[in-house]
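Batch job 17 of 40 flagged for manual review because the log was empty.
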Amino acid sequence: MQAVQREIAEQLKVQPPFADHAALEAEVARRVSFIQDCLVNSGLKTLVLGISGGVDSLSMGEGIGTPLVHLNRTAQRIINWRFVMPDSSRPGFGRYLYFPTQNHLTICKPKTQLDENYSAVREFIAQQMRREEERKSRS
């Protein structure tokens, strides 16, 4: 390890390779405890943990409920149901798009190729393909 790498590892408190399985388990327990403490101390009720391995992501949020037919013994009625609440649709990393006039079904299955969410997914995939081609050409 070069001097600069060693300095960065020390500042970031990077752990050396684990000596054995017990050392690995101890580190897992330490990290789980840290995450639990962060959640408890924040006062929040939910936690979205995003671990990036260098892979870009695209998330979309639905702005309106999805109409569902509710059947019971006496009546049939339409209810609007949000499958993914706004606070949980945004993981906190990657690209995020919010569609205030779309529901879960119209986001997951666009009606046409002209829908903005279809275009966003298509462009996101094309961008990833271009990056991969650039990466391959540099290798």
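Reviewer: the log was empty due to a logging misconfiguration, but the result itself is present. Strands lie at 58-62, 66-71, 76-81, 95-99. Unflagging and moving on to job 18.
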